[in-house]
Amino acid sequence: MKQNLKSIIIGGGIAGKLAARVLSASFQSVIILEQDSEVTSPNPRKGAPQGNHIHALLHAGEHGLEQLFPGITEHFYSTGAIKINSTKDLAWHHHGVWKLRYDGGYTTTLQTRPHLEWHINQYIKKDENITIRYNQTVKKYVFDKGENRIIGVELKNGSIIYADLIIDASGASSFSYRWLTEQGVQVPEEKVKIGLTYVSQIVELPDNNDRDWTIKLLYPDPPHEKMAGSLSKVEGNRYLATFIGYHNIINDKDTLKENSLLALAEKLPKTDIFHELQNAQPLTGISIYKVPHITWRKIEKVKKFPSGLLMIGDTLCRIDPFFGQGMSIAVLEALALKDILQNQSQDNIAQKFHKKAAKIIAPIWNMVLTEDFRYSETTGKKPLGFPILQWYARNVFLLSAKDKNIYDSFIKVMNLKRPMTILMQPLIVFAVLKKGLTKKRRL
């Protein structure tokens, strides 16, 4: 039931639009303030440079998106997105071994981020409660100090908009944390340096009857390998080629030279992508995107955080994009907000949300850091029991190259459908210990 309430969302990216969709069921007016100009076709936008690179909606994210926007998955497919069998059409080299390929009954959608975002936007535009204002920059908050409550925003042009709830979905570089510091509010954070660089280009590949995959991933075998490569079919019968390097192993100047993708492909541990790109025709320019560090801001721990302000998406936690979990986390957060609005009192919405969001983020953050800290150059706070977690995870990865049950469980965890505890089932623990002990004897 809609109440006579107004909400403002800062940032019209995916997280912002997901939040708007949820709020429109409870708030009479939802205003999205977006810095970019309106996009009239599914193309990359200035405010989302990461949109030029590979993106994935994990199973939990895709299913959640369908809940929020019924029928959207079919819209993806009807306009060119690729539906694949998650374990059969994926060729994945990980930690020095190829994953098993079999029909596990799971499906994944391959598409560019602009294509996905475009369709979300079409749903948003049909919602009468939601208004998108483009070319709008928020300068600061309107703050009721006595009530410790944010009651509105002041725009760059000097105008003020008041609201009952403000959601910051503007991303990792949000001005909110600077503003909070100025008010004497310190937000504890975990920050981990990873020095990640993305290099991508959309290409056309010649027909090849021997090509038995739709997406190929060549992940590094850390710590001695720091580069990954991928080729993913996307809408328009095109392929998105992406290279990823940790700790600045990719030289920016070299990546913009002619045939630079081939030069990067030559550095991968396998030659598969190099051979595919030898006869590829570039359809776009080369894009570079950097993620120097990842950050989790723990707002749920701040006792006097101003009411009326809620953080979501990358504004709350920017996770290592290499593992493809960012968009799915945003979907899960939107569903958590929906649950609060539908099933709980309207008091302290933001406080309740931040606690729920922390529970969503925590296991994923620790899972990602287990891999990020395989490099000695990675700096930051390590997860509890870190060496054991790394040893166990690596053996699960290696066993998933030949044990269907273990790989199937790993797929569920990776796609955020099941908790990591399912990888601690007795049969899996026994297999991991057996492999570890066998390896020790050989040494």
Explain what the structure shows.
The protein has about 450 residues and is an alpha/beta fold. It folds into 3 domains: about 230 residues, FAD/NAD(P)-binding domain (3-Layer(bba) Sandwich); about 100 residues, 2-Layer Sandwich (D-Amino Acid Oxidase, Chain A, domain 2); about 55 residues, no CATH class. Helix content is about 35%, strand content about 25%. The strands form 4 sheets. Strands 4, 5, 12, 13, 14, 15, 16, 17 and 19 form a 9-stranded mixed sheet that branches. It has a 5-stranded parallel sheet with strand order 7-2-1-11-18, with helices on one face. It has a 3-stranded antiparallel sheet with strand order 8-9-10, with no helix packed on it. The longest helix has 24 residues. It is globular, with a radius of gyration of 22 Å.
Any key phrases for this structure?
443 residues; FAD/NAD(P)-binding domain; D-Amino Acid Oxidase, Chain A, domain 2; 3 domains; five-stranded parallel sheet; 19 strands; 33% helix; 25% strand
